[in-house]
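Go through this:
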Amino acid sequence: MGQGLSGRTAVVTGASAGIGSAIVKALYASGASVVLNARRADRLERIAAELGDRASACPGDAGEQTTIDAMLDAAETLGGKPADLVVVNAGRGLAGSVTTSDEDQWEEMIRVNLLAAARLMRSAAKRMLDAGPDAQSDKAWEQTPRDIVVLGSNVGRHISPFSSMYGSTKFAVNSLAEAQRRELASRGIRVTLIEPGIVKSEFQGVAGYDDAWWDNFGQKFGPLLEPEDVARTVRFVVEQPAHVHLNDIMLRPTKQDYP
């Protein structure tokens, strides 16, 4: 499994459950120090305590710049240098289309899924650039992998009429990730988009999908993805040597033909 992550320092948002928690555990197991962020402080503290001294909880709203600054500061304290691995994972779903979804939830979903992601991507990039090395002038970047990993969705590429408001935020995130990849590639920083299909987690309940909907998808497409499947993919990407970049990965349950 790649070259391992010993000596690297990661920040993971949405880390209290599901995909985020699985990513934290995978990165830690590979040797990284990890700062965990989510709103549920009790869960974060428990996960960090279970992992050990290389894990630190930084609770708060990932959409607030003060929280973003705090988690990046915590990473520098924990690892002795700025974070070189930032996973932009915090987000939420919303059942329904433009016609049928709950309009009262639109703005909050856009704030969490798009604006929070953009703020963290911006702040992480600035700190990585300031810390160097700069691939335009310093060959040391080849021994210094730096990653911004963005969790998108397959409905951010393949339109689903059943979750089109949520999908629209992921279309936007997909665009941000590719644009930032093009912006930072020449500087030696990798920006990776991961686009999961249907994953078994808390996501569906928060999004408002009922049990019948979930059972139908499980019967049609199962076995579905587990959070650990996504985490294993993230780990594989960031363990690559600095000159190797798997920049856009879509993963689905084998039987999921659409979306």
